[in-house]
């Protein structure tokens, strides 16, 4: 049974090979000890939140230092890491560090010599509005003067028409004057420059998130003109629209998932980085804007590119080289050590989330402790706190919403616990439905014993465990001369390689080749496919059970990788897998010994499931196979087969 306390060790099964019930089970230390904080407070409203974003970032000290250096030296930065670890927040923080005194406005003017080549002018921030206003006032004065002349002329024409008794002719002439005069008067507005980029009254350098931007939004565009001729067309300079690269001039351009940007756009982005200016032209070849191309528009921005590790594969090599050669690359941490100092940082994190939301009650001390306890669970590693703070921030807001709905003055631990149930991910909800359906249709067994059948464990979406039944059958080889291992269940690359590794162990354990037999392995209900090697010990147990005709205890579930020498290796997601087994009604779970400190199960599960840690396939079979003389003889043979050969 999983209990609080220190480890006492696992008794070697060799000392009592025939009675696994008497084996001392390891006391798994869990995550339910009291959370001690270095700061005493009644609620998070008492916690000071730093004014600068750079000082609000948790656990990314290396990245923070790089961002500070990059901001001071105007270097580009590539951030790679798990989603939700603070990449966009670091980019925003960099914008705050840049000097706002360098900001500029960008104006686009008509070009009298070539209407399709508008002129560009840069002025200090805030001056652009004044220049446009001055031009507009001047154009308005000219327009008023022309309008007055037209009115006087029309009045004179009508007086003459009345005196000569030619009123209809006079009206006709006035209508003609109005038609052509409107076009004549309106041409003054065509000379007013357009404020392309404005930094009026900005407190910080611009931060522009260009993630998933199409070419026009990123590089600028020229709007289509439906009239195009007849004197009613919109002036070319007035149809020019700035792109994100221009709006981020003297600031930060952030682009997450850089690999999804089209290769042509990446090439254009590289040009903008190199030249620090990029002319705007129409992005659609069918548009009249394709004829328009401005003078080069300033775009002296700092590029912050971000993504997961796979983003590097599809990124334009020259673009990456530019960032790497003129900037920094940083890999984001996804957890930090669980120290008193870092727990205190989590207090500030909760206070920051409450402040940013602005609509939820402050958290009391017990609620913050519950958030920290969940941060330990989500880290997946004992002695660590997760740095995937976006998801954890969602938990803070849901708990706050529940407190607000209850009319509570503060958010308490009970609100956080309720929020954990409400804010389950889609994968967790699917896993729950999966377990319900498996129970209804008895896809996995929770009692008795059966030959060649094992309750494996898997993870969906990284935070949801499921029971994965694995069946095996040994049959005579169809060819008679060549045996095969046939695995079904949409296995992917790593899972198939794991099956091959298991075959090496099977050959060594049985002491014979498998040319005369076919080994069938079925992963039941894996409609979305199987990836990873965490089912290796489950496969080996199912196959050896089928081969030796020894039943497997169906109250047991297991997870663990397996080396070709029979060693049990660590896997991920053990906490979620154990909880899934407990929900399914499984009584005992076998996990790798190297994962014992990663177990942080909820209080609700700690008294309903027994956790066993193992380091070899021999120990796995000791706990999984049903006791019998046949089992004892097989385990004795197994230990001899896996005994290391003496050195010569």
Automatic annotation (TrEMBL):
One of its GO terms (biological process) is proteolysis. Residues 1-11 have a biased composition (Polar residues). Signal peptide: none annotated. One of its GO terms (molecular function) is ATP-dependent peptidase activity. It is found in: Cell membrane. It is a multi-pass membrane protein. It comes from the Archaea. Its EC number is 3.4.21.-. Keywords: ATP-binding, Cell membrane, Hydrolase, Membrane, Nucleotide-binding, Protease, Serine protease, Transmembrane, Transmembrane helix. The keyword Membrane applies. Residues 73-329 form the AAA+ ATPase domain. One of its GO terms (cellular component) is plasma membrane. The chain crosses the membrane at residues 151-178. InterPro entries: AAA+_ATPase (IPR003593), Lon_arc (IPR004663), Lon_proteolytic (IPR008269), Lon_Prtase (IPR027065), LonB_AAA-LID (IPR046843), Mg_chelatse_chII-like_cat_dom (IPR000523), P-loop_NTPase (IPR027417), Ribosomal_Su5_D2-typ_SF (IPR020568). Residues 12-22 have a biased composition (Low complexity). Its main location: membrane. It is an enzyme of class 3 (hydrolase). Belongs to the peptidase S16 family. Archaeal LonB subfamily. ATP-dependent serine protease that mediates the selective degradation of mutant and abnormal proteins as well as certain short-lived regulatory proteins. Degrades polypeptides processively. Homohexamer. Organized in a ring with a central cavity. NCBIfam families: lon_rel. This is Archaeal Lon protease. The lineage of its organism: Archaea, Methanobacteriati, Methanobacteriota, Stenosarchaea group, Methanomicrobia.
């Amino acid at each position: 049974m999983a209990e609080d306390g220190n480890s006492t060790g696992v008794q070697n099964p060799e000392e009592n090979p025939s009675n696994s019930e008497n084996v001392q089970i390891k006391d798994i230390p869990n995550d339910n000890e009291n959370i001690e904080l270095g700061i005493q407070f009644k609620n998070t409203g008492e916690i000071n939140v730093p004014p600068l974003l750079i000082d609000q970032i948790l656990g990314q000290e290396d990245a923070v230092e790089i961002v500070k250096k990059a901001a001071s030296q105007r270097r580009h930065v590539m951030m790679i890491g798990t989603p939700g670890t603070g990449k966009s927040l670091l980019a925003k923080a960099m914008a705050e560090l840049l000097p706002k005194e360098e900001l500029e406005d960008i104006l686009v003017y008509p070009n009298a010599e070539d209407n399709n080549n508008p002129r560009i002018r840069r002025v200090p921030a805030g001056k652009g509005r004044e220049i446009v206003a001055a031009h507009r006032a001047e154009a308005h004065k000219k327009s008023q003067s022309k309008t007055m002349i037209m009115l006087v002329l029309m009045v004179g024409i009508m007086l003459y028409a009345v005196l000569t008794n030619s009123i209809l002719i006079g009206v006709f002439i006035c209508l003609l004057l109005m038609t052509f005069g409107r076009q004549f008067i309106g041409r003054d507005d065509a000379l007013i420059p357009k404020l392309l980029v404005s930094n009026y009254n900005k407190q910080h350098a611009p931060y522009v998130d260009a993630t998933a931007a199409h070419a026009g939004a990123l590089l600028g565009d020229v709007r289509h003109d439906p009239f195009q001729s007849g004197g009613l067309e919109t002036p070319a300079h007035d149809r020019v629209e700035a792109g994100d690269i221009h709006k981020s001039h003297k600031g930060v351009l952030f682009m997450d998932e850089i690999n999804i940007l089209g290769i042509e756009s990446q090439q254009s982005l590289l040009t903008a980085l190199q030249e620090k200016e990029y002319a705007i032209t129409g992005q659609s070849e069918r548009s009249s804007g394709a004829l328009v191309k401005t003078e080069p528009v300033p775009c002296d921005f700092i590029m912050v590119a971000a993504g997961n590790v796979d983003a590097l594969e599809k990124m334009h090599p020259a673009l990456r080289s530019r960032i790497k050669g003129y900037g920094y690359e940083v890999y984001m941490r996804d957890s930090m050590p669980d120290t008193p100092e870092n727990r205190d940082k989590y207090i500030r994190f909760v206070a920051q989330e409450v402040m940013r939301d602005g609509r939820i009650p402050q958290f009391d001390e017990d609620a913050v402790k519950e958030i920290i306890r969940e941060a330990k669970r989500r880290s997946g590693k004992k002695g660590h706190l997760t740095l995937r703070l976006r998801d954890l921030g969602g938990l803070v807001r849901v708990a706050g919403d529940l407190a607000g709905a209850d009319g509570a003055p503060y958010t308490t631990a009970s609100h956080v616990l309720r929020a954990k149930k409400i804010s389950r991910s889609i994968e967790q909800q699917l896993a729950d439905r999966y377990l319900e359906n498996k129970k209804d249709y008895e896809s996995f067994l929770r009692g008795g014993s059966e030959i060649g059948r094992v309750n494996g464990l898997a993870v969906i979406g990284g935070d949801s465990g499921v029971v994965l039944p694995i069946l095996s059958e040994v049959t005579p080889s169809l060819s008679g001369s060549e045996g095969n291992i046939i695995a079904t269940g949409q296995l992917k690359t790593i899972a198939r390689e794991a099956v091959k590794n298991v075959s090496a162990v099977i050959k060594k354990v049985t002491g014979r080749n498998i040319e005369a037999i076919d080994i069938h392995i079925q992963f039941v209900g894996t409609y979305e496919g199987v990836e990873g090697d965490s089912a290796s010990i489950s496969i080996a147990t199912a196959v050896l059970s089928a081969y030796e005709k020894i039943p497997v205890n169906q109250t047991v579930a297991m997870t663990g990788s397996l080396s070709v020498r029979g060693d049990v290796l660590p896997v991920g997601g053990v906490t979620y897998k154990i909880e899934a087994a407990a929900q399914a009604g499984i009584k005992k779970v076998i996990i790798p010994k190297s994962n014992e400190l990663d177990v942080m199960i909820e209080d609700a599960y700690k008294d309903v499931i027994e956790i066993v840690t193992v380091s070899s396939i021999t120990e796995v079979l000791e706990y999984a196979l049903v006791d019998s003389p046949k089992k004892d003889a097989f385990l004795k043979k197994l230990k001899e087969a896996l005994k290391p050969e003496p050195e010569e």
